[in-house]
Amino acid sequence: MDPLSAAMKIAGSGLESQSTRLRIVSENIANARSTGDTPGADPYRRKTITFGQQMDRASGVETVNVKKIGTDDGDFTKEYDPSNPAADEKGIVKMPNVNILIEMADMREANRSYDANLQTIKQTRDLISSTIDLLKSQ
Predict the structure, then answer these.
(1) Is the pTM of this model over 0.70?
(2) Are 45 and 31 in contact (CB under 8 A)?
(3) Three-class secondary structure assignment of the chain
(4) Per-position pLDDT tens, the chain of length 138
(5) Which end of the chain is more exposed for a tag (fewer CB within 10 A), N or C?
(6) Angle at alpha carbon of residue 14, lines to 5 and 57, rounded to 5°
């Protein structure tokens, strides 16, 4: 496979992986205050994403992929809110282990990585187009 096609393949896999990462971060943010349904029940547990690499046999290049979507086993925070339906007999509610600041930083990093992969695809496409134009002019 030629280097330009390989660059497009690698950047495309990066776009797909970062898109999944953005979806997971968005889900975490959306559920940052989701408690359990019954008293003492566990709330939403933060999701995590792990990337891996795989060899694309057709092209012979290593691409990035989502290896695993897991959960964060960190402790839940506890808040006193006796009016909440998920409150135990002492009025304590288990809250998700989602830290909005961490999620926002993760979202920003994923967004920048997505943009970098998109720019790689655009520049590679421009190089291919320029090469075709040069070949036509000969």
Answers:
(1) yes
(2) no
(3) CCHHHHHHHHHHHHHHHHHHHHHHHHHHHHCCCCCCCCCCCCCCCCEEEEEEEEEECCCCEEEEEEEEEEECCCCCEEEECCCCCCCCCCCEEEECCCCHHHHHHHHHHHHHHHHHHHHHHHHHHHHHHHHHHHHHCC
(4) 788 889 999 999 999 999 999 999 999 999 999 999 999 899 999 999 999 999 988 878 999 999 999 999 999 999 999 999 999 999 999 999 999 999 999 999 999 999 999 999 999 999 999 999 999 987
(5) C
(6) 50
Residue with tokens 């889900």: 27
Q: In angstroms, how far is CA 38 from the centroid of its own chain?
A: 30
CA atoms within 13 A on the CB side of 54: 10
Residue corresponding to tokens 């330009």: 4
